[in-house]
């Protein structure tokens, strides 16, 4: 993304007795330093009137911007306005408009006011303009892969099976594509928007819909009003053909804007939202602060989801049907995340992108808080473990501070450090302070900075104020430095003194200090020890009153510390750890070790067998994956429990894994179980049952698939069926192979074996006359186009694939020149080639 920095441009400086110096990019320091944007103007209110040109994919707008100098007198207003046509600029007194001189270049609109204004002396500037998002040259990033600000989706209706939608994406600084503003997070203002749209569509924006007025020519104007201040990047507009499913939290409207096909499932997808609002309000002792909460899905969205104030926008992955929802709502954590932003991000906003942690780390950690509240600590710990693993997997992030003043692009801060590592850091901080102090500190932070901005130091000060503890040591190493502890350890038993000496070695730089929980096992039972490691290479701890050498010493036994720990435990020790630890991570790591080593040691098989009865379903799943019931010894010990899980397990994901484990026996006596499974609602159970049935009765699988309606097959089940459809050339279900066919150049790069199946699917589609398959293939390729953005190599891979497919389809057309549907397929392919060539 190109860096757009708003310098302090003052057209009237020569006429003013005051000299205002702007903060520089380095803020007087050597080297790159991302200073907080200097506020010379305070925006008070933005009023917009807009309508849309669907053919040109442009927006006609009028803006009334009420502002005043922030502190020093000023006779100019400097605004961001990207790729616009500026038609008129005037001072609006409410009674008359007086033209103002302005200069517009390099996406900066510099307006000379009619006089010099003092602090808190308000004025209103009127701007008539045209927003042209397709003219924006700013690029997106890995996290937000577009920076057009305003998006027209299938505006001319040419794309197959895709609705026409309009939506905006302001983060980081792209709201200035669709209205002139000071596009910085440390600005806060109220707003109102008049949106004129075709009457067939509904609209969504921030705040409350005050009124809706019918216009001529089947048009309608909706008036949305936001009476509480928030930042420009959180401004939002959404337009489309949605159903609105109504819900409520206390007296607050909660609405779900959803494509009509998914309307029956809206409450299954979003239905926990009111409970989340209640939980977060009580946890923070600060009630949800906004007048409504709405959630909308978007096609071709450029990120995962966005917390626009009172109007969250989700990517289309939120759209799920019963087969998937029966297994799990894959979007529940995101729904929780975006809601929590309405306190951390919307109510109190990061004053600069360097301090993004006060938005995103908290939102990521809110996922832990929700899962802990709703499903228990094991579920929350599992979720956090996956977050930590994502961060630890990528060493390229190890040298990045959490609060980062030296980023190359502000988009770079949206990464594994800010999100996943930041959440793990907050978990450590909560455990160090205690939950009550942590919650009370967050409440102080919110109340002291509400409807304003915040930074990491204000979090620290609020927590210190409540707890009485100095937290500089914690923030200096975890917020203003980088990396994490890399630990190894040894321990020795001294029989005369009856004590264990534990030495913990840190091998990384910088060194860390941290509290640590250690379980010392005597007679199979853990005795918990709490120690403090100083910031030095070796820390030694002595545990006394031990009758004999411990069977096991388990460091970081509660799983709280974010660290890489080199372990040297035996399978017997892992079995002991599993049997006697109540902590999720200790149990999971033991079963994970057994999963990898079950063929080597009897203790590992015992761990897997115990894991089959674990209270947490993810551990039961892992244990099932580790079994091989084709081995007689394993079957003898585990088969009865696996069968019980197949028939009685309430969690469908576990039941599916049990079916997968049972399938390894290749025993025909389980055929009835698998046939029952393919009638289940759960996609996971259906998929595993089909795979199992394929090993013993493939003819029944073919017969089953031949009776399927393609429209009833979910995306995840489709991925299971597609190879079978290709192999058996089931023409009726050919369209279900379009997904793997569309991705075949990319699949081939990752796995040539799977790529061969995907290429075969693509060739089959192109060498036959199947409008449904081609139509769906093109639809998926249009989605891929959005995902890959401006990646030239990815575009070339798709173009090469499309051109070879066109040649194949032309040969089919040459043999059947009078078939109109073949001509249509060729037209679709050509249109997609043109689209990718732009």
Automatic annotation (TrEMBL):
Cellular component GO terms, alphabetical: cytoplasm; extracellular space; membrane
A single BP term in Gene Ontology: peptide catabolic process
Gene3D superfamilies: Leucine-rich Repeat Variant (1.25.10.10), Neutral Protease Domain 2 (1.10.390.10), tricorn interacting facor f3 domain (2.60.40.1730)
Domain Aminopeptidase N-like N-terminal positions: 45-234
GO molecular function: alanyl aminopeptidase activity; metalloaminopeptidase activity; peptide binding; zinc ion binding
Keywords in alphabetical order: Aminopeptidase, Hydrolase, Metal-binding, Metalloprotease, Protease, Zinc
Catalytic reaction annotation: Release of an N-terminal amino acid, Xaa-|-Yaa- from a peptide, amide or arylamide. Xaa is preferably Ala, but may be most amino acids including Pro (slow action). When a terminal hydrophobic residue is followed by a prolyl residue, the two may be released as an intact Xaa-Pro dipeptide
A UniProt-annotated Pfam family: Peptidase_M1_N
Keyword Zinc: yes
Cofactor: Zn(2+)
Listed EC numbers: 3.4.11.2
Domain Peptidase M1 membrane alanine aminopeptidase: 272-478
Family: Belongs to the peptidase M1 family.
Official protein name in the record: Aminopeptidase N
């Amino acid at each position: 993304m190109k860096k757009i920095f708003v310098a302090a441009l003052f057209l009237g400086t020569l006429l003013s007795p005051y000299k205002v110096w702007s903060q520089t990019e380095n803020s007087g320091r050597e080297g790159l330093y991302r200073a907080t944007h200097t506020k010379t103007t305070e925006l008070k209110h933005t009023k917009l009137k807009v309508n849309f040109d669907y053919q040109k994919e442009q927006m006609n707008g009028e803006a009334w911007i009420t502002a005043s100098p922030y502190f020093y007198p000023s006779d100019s207003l400097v605004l961001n306005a990207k790729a616009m046509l500026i038609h008129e600029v005037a001072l609006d007194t409410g009674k008359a408009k007086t033209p103002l001189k302005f200069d517009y270049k390099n996406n900066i609109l510099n307006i000379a006011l009619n006089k010099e204004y003092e602090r808190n002396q308000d004025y209103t500037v009127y701007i008539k303009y045209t927003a042209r998002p397709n003219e924006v040259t700013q690029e997106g990033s890995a996290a937000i892969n577009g920076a057009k600000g305003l998006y027209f989706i299938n505006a001319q209706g040419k794309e197959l099976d895709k609705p026409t939608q309009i939506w905006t994406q302001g983060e980081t600084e792209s709201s200035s594509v669709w209205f002139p503003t000071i596009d910085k997070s440390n600005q806060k203002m109220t707003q109102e928007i008049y949106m004129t749209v075709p009457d067939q569509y509904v609209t969504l924006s921030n705040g409350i819909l005050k009124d809706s007025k019918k216009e001529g020519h089947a048009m309608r104007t909706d008036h949305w009003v936001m009476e509480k201040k928030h930042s420009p990047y959180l401004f939002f507009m959404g337009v489309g053909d949605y159903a609105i499913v109504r819900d409520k939290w206390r007296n607050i409207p909660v609405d779900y804007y959803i494509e009509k096909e998914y309307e029956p499932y809206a409450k299954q997808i979003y239905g926990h939202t009111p409970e989340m609002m209640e939980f977060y309000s009580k946890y923070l002792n600060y009630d949800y602060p906004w007048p409504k909460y709405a959630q909308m899905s978007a096609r071709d969205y450029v990120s995962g989801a966005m917390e626009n104030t009172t109007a969250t926008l989700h990517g289309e992955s939120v759209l799920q049907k019963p087969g998937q929802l029966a297994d799990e709502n894959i979007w529940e954590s995101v729904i929780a995340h975006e809601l929590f932003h309405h306190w951390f991000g919307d109510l109190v906003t990061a004053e600069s992108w360097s301090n993004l942690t006060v938005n995103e780390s908290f939102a990521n950690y809110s996922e832990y808080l929700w899962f802990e509240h709703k499903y228990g600590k094991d579920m929350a710990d599992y979720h956090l473990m996956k977050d930590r693993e994502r961060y630890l997997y990528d060493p390229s992030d190890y040298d990045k501070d959490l609060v980062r003043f030296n980023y190359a692009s502000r988009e770079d801060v949206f990464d594994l450090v800010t999100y996943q590592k930041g959440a793990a850091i907050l978990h450590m901080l909560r455990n160090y302070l205690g939950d009550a102090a942590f919650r009370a500190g967050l409440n102080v932070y919110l109340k002291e900075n509400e409807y304003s901005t915040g930074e990491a130091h204000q979090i620290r000060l609020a927590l210190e104020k409540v707890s009485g503890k100095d937290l500089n040591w914690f923030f200096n190493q975890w917020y203003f430095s980088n990396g994490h502890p890399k630990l190894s350890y040894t321990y020795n038993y001294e029989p005369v003194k009856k004590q264990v000496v534990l030495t913990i070695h840190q091998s990384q730089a910088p060194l860390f200090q941290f509290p640590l929980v250690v379980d010392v096992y005597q007679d199979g039972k853990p005795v918990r020890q709490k120690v403090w490691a100083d910031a030095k290479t070796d820390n030694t701890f002595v545990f006394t009153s031990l009758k004999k050498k411990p069977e096991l010493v388990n460091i970081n036994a509660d799983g709280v510390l974010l660290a890489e720990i080199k372990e040297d435990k035996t399978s017997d020790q892992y079995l002991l750890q599993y049997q006697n630890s109540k902590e999720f991570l200790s149990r999971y790591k033991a079963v994970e070790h057994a999963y990898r080593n079950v063929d080597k040691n009897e203790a590992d098989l015992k761990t897997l067998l115990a894991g089959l009865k674990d209270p947490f379903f993810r551990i039961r799943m892992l244990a099932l994956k580790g079994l091989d019931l084709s081995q007689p010894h394993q079957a003898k010990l585990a088969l009865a429990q696996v069968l019980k899980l197949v028939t009685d397990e309430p969690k469908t994901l576990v039941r599916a894994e049990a079916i997968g484990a049972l399938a390894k026996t290749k025993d025909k006596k389980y055929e009835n179980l698998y046939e029952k499974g393919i009638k289940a609602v759960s996609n996971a159970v259906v998929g595993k049952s089909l795979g199992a049935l394929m090993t013993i009765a493939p003819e029944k699988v073919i017969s089953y698939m031949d009776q399927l309606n393609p429209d009833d097959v979910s995306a995840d089940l489709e991925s299971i069926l597609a190879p079978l459809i290709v192999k058996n050339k089931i023409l009726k279900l050919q369209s279900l192979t379009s997904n793997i066919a569309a991705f075949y150049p990319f699949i081939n790069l990752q796995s040539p074996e799977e790529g061969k199946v995907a290429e075969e699917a693509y060739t089959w589609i192109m060498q036959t006359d199947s409008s449904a398959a081609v139509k769906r293939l093109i639809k998926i390729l249009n989605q891929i186009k959005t995902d890959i953005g401006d990646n030239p190599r990815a575009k070339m891979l798709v173009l090469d694939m499309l051109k070879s497919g066109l040649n194949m389809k032309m040969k089919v057309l040459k043999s059947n020149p009078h078939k109109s549907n073949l001509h249509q397929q060729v037209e679709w392919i050509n249109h997609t080639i043109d689209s990718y060539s732009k």
